[in-house]
Amino acid sequence: MLYRLAGIRHTTYRSARQLFPIPFDRKLLGFVILLGVAAPFYLSPLHLNSYLLPWVIWTTAALGLNLLMGWAGQVHLGYAAVMAIGAYAAIHATRFGLPLEAALLVGGLASSVIGLAFGAAALRVKGLYLAVTTLAMQSIVDWTIVHVPAISGGSQATLQAPTLRLFGLPIETDAGRYWYALGLCAIVTVFLLNVSRTSFGRALVAVREKDFAAAIIGVSPFKFKLLAFWCSSFIGGVTGAILAFCYYRAITPEQFHLEVSIQVVAMVIVGGLGSVLGSYFGAGLVLLAPIFLNNWVASLASALNLSLQTDVLSQIPLVLYGGLIVGFLLFEPLGLAKIYDNVRNYFLVWPFRHAR
Amino acid sequence: MPLEPMTRTAVDVADPAAVPRTEAGQDAGTLISLLAANARTHGATVAMRERDRGVWREFTWSQMLQEVLAFAAWLDAQRFKPGEGLLVIGDNRPQLYFGMLSAAALRGLAAPVYPDTPPDDLTFYAGNSRARFALAEDQEKVDKLLELRNRSGLPEVIVYDDPRGLANYTQEGLYAWTEVAAIGAKRLQDEPGLRDDLIGRAKPSDVAVLLHSSGTTGKPKGVPLQHRRVIAAARNAQKADYFREGDELVAYLPMAWVGDFVFTVSAGIALRFTANIPERQETVLHNLREVAPTVYFASPRSWDAMLTHVQVGIAESTRFKRWLYYRFMPLAVRIETARIEGKAPSLTDRLLHGLGEALVYAPLRDHLGLSRAERAYTAGEAIGEDTFLFFRALGLNLKQFYGQTENCALTAAQKTGDVKLNTVGQPLPGVDIKIADDGEILLRADSVFDGYFNDDASSAKALANGWLHTGDAGYVQPDGHLVVLGRVGEVVHTKSGERYIPTYIENRLKFSQYVKDAAVIGDGRDYLASLMCIDMNAVGHWAEENGVTYTSYAELSQRPEVYALIEGVIRHVNSLLPPALAIRRFVNLPKEFDPDDGEVTRTRKLRRNVIDEHYAGVIAALYDGSTSVEHRARITYETGATGTLDRKLAIKDIEAA
After folding, report:
1. CATH architecture assignment, domain A44-348
2. pTM of the full structure
3. CA spacing 20 to 30 A to B119: which of A262, B147, B168, B215?
4. Which residues of A make CB contacts under 8 Å with B?
C-alpha cells in the first residue's frame, strides 16, 4: 500500500546493489534522520539526555557487538570490558594532551589489541567455550582496572572526563554532545550497512555458518575471525570512550561490569542478530522499556488508587520487562528487526500475501 | 447470433483523387532517414533498453544508428541486393530490430518470422522472400536455420546475436553479430561517403518489412509494407492521441506480428519511443513492473491472464486485504459501468472510490507495473466484458482498437471518454471506412499496403476499386462507432436457416476463465454443438480448491465435475443467445488446440477445416446422440515428430432451460 515499486530499474549492477532502492524506504529514512538530528529542538533536556543520548550510544555499542555475534557468529560476554578499555585509554590519552579525535583512536586501538588477544582464543574454542573465555576476559579486565591505580585511580576512584572537543573547539551543550554521539553512531551504521555487501561481510557470514566449510571454499577462518574481533573491539573501544565523554563524563569501574555486557548481548539478540535496524530496536527496548514501564506502573497505581508496597511496585516493572523480552522472542525468535520486516513485507506486497 | 441489421453509413468519404495514394507519403522520409534524424537531434537519448542478466542495457539513438549502419555496411559488402530477403528469427532483441532496419536501408526485405515456426512453414517463408541471409537470436534458432539450409539451400549466410553454445560450430557462412558489426564499422570508417549513402539509399516507397498474414485459410500471404505506409500509420495514431512522442513501451510481442513492427520500430522511430525489451518471454510480467511503460499493449488473452493472476493472488491473500479487495473492487466496477453508460457517480461513491484508490486500485496498478500507463490497449479479438471493465475500473485507460496487417494494424480505435463495450471505436484520423453491400468493412488510408508479395490475383481482389477489402463483417453505428462481428466468410447458417458467426459465440464462451478455446459447430446442422478446451491453469486451480484429483490435462478434462463446470459456462452463454442458436451438446477435448498441430494459427485463430478433419469422429458423435466417443488425437511436437493420444471422450447434452 505504501510502497511503489513500478519503474525501479537498474542499468548497472552497482545501482542494483544500492542500500535503499525503494523510494518509500528512502523517504522514511530521511524522515527518521531528520527527527534524530532535530531532536534537541523539540525534546526536553531530560528526554534528550536520559533517553535519546544513551539510546544512540548503546545502539553504537550494540552494532559493534552485532558485527561479531550477528555477522561472524562469535559469542562475546565481555563487551563491557572492551568498552572499558576504550574509555580508560581515551581519557588517559587526553590527559597526556592528545586531541580528542586521536584519543578516540587510541581508545579504539587499545580495545582492539586487547580484544584481539582474547579473540585469538576463538581460533581454538567455539560456542559455549568461547563464551566462557570471553567471560574470563570480563573478569580479568575488571580486576585489572580496579587493582591498577594507574588506570582507575583506585577502586573507589572516579575519573573525570575532560571536555568534549571537536577539532579543538570545546562542546559544552547537551545538544552538542548528543550530535557528537549521533555522528559516531551514523558512521558505524553506514559501515555495518555496507559490510553486508562487501566480500568482508560475506566472508564473515561464511565463517558464521560453518568455519571449516568456509575454509574449504577458500575463506580463511583464522583471518576473518581475528578481523571480526579486531573491528568489533575497535568499535566497542571508541563507543566506550564516547560513553565516557558524552554521557557519564566521569567513569568508575562499576560502569563496565558483567551485567552491562549481558545487557549489550540482550540488545543484540532481542533486536535481531545480523541486523543493523535490530540493534536500534534492541538498544531501545532494553534501555528504555524499564524506564517507561516504571513510569506507567507508577502512574497507573496512583490513578487506580492502589496502595501497593514500594517493593512490590518496584518489582512489577521488572516482571513486565522480563515478560516483554520473552514475549517478543517467543513471538518472533529472530528479533524485533524481523517483526519490523514482517510488517514491512505486509505492506510491500499489499494487496497480496506474498511477492508475486 | 444473427447479424444485426447493417447501417450502411459511408463515413466521411474524402475525395479519393485529392491526394493520389501512389504519391502519398513520398516526402515523409524513410525509417532510416528518421532514425538518422533522431540520432542527430537526440543522439544521447535512450532508444532501446534490453534486460540482460538482471540489468538494463541501453542503446542511445546514435548507438542504434551506428549498429544499423555497421550491419548494413557489412551486408552491402556481402552483396546483399535490393529485393533480397533477410530472414529474422528469434524473440525480441535489439540486434534483430537493428538487422531489420539494416536490410530496409539496403532496400532489401526484412522478413521476421515467429520463433516457433515449424520447419515446413519456415521453408515457405525463406523461399517466398528469397532469403539468402538470415539473422538468428541464438543457438536454437541457428540449428533451425541450418536444418532449413539442408532442406532448401537457403539461407546461405546466418548471423547470430547470442554466441552462447556456438563456439564449436564450423559450418560455413556462420557469423556472430559482434564480428560482422565490427567489420561493417571499419568499412564505415574507411569509406567516408558510405554513411550518407546508406542513410539515403532507401526511398519512402521501398519495402520496410515483409510480414506474413496469419492465414486463417490456406497458406500465409506475404504482406510487404512500405516505409511511407508504416510511417503514415504511426502519424495517424499520433493524431488520435493513441501514441505520444517519447512514450515508454515494452517490446515483447512477437516480432513477426505487424503490431510489434508498427509500434516498436515504426512509431518507435517516428515518435522517438524508448522500447524496453524483457529478459525472456517468461519474465515479461516481472520486467513490466521495472519498466512501468507509459503506453502498453496486450492481447485480450494477456489481459485475461493478468486478471486471473490478480484473482488468484487475492484468493490466497490475508483476510483483511481480501476483505478490502472484495469491498472496493465491485464498487469500482459498478462506478465504471455507470460511467460508460454516461451516469456520474454519487458523492458517497466518489468518496469511497477515493479511499479504494489508496487502498486497492493504486497498489494493484503498481504491482502490475501499469501505474504510469496513461494509455493501455487491446486488439486482435473481442475482449471479455468482465476483463475490460475490471481494468478500466482499476483506473487504467484501457481501450480497444481494430486493424489488420494490410493496414499496418491501425484502423479504428476507441477514444478516451468515448468507450463502448461492443464497438472498436471510431476510425483513426486519415482512415476512411465504408461498409460494402454484403456487410464487409472496406477502408482507405495512406497506411494501407500496396498489394501482396508475388500474388497479383489476391492483391487485385484485396484492393479492388481503391478500397482495402478487410474480409471482416461489421457495421457502423449512427454515432460513428464501428462494430466488428467476425469474418465475412465465417457467416454460416444452420439447417433451419439461422445466421450466425461461430467466432462471435466462441469469444463469448472464452470470456470464461475456465475456457481456453472453443469451436462451435453447426453449419447445416439441426442445432449447435461445441468442442471445448479447458484452461489448464484456471480449471486446475478450481480442481485443487474443490478436491477434484487429476494427473494430466486429458484426465482433468474428462472429470464429471469439470463437465458440470463447463456446462454452467455454456448455459450462461446460451442465455445471452436466441434459443435457436443455443449450444445443445458439447465435448471436452483431451488436449488444447495447438499451432504445431495446425489447429490454430500462431496468433491462436481457429483453423476450422483442420479442426473439422482432426475431430471428424467426435463431431459425428455430437450429432448422433451417443454419450461418448473414442478419439485418437494426433500430436505434433515442436521438433516435427508426431504422436497419438487415445481417449474416450464423454459427450454432454444441455437441455433447453
Report:
1. Orthogonal Bundle (1.10)
2. 0.81
3. B168
4. 1, 3-13, 16, 346, 350-353, 356
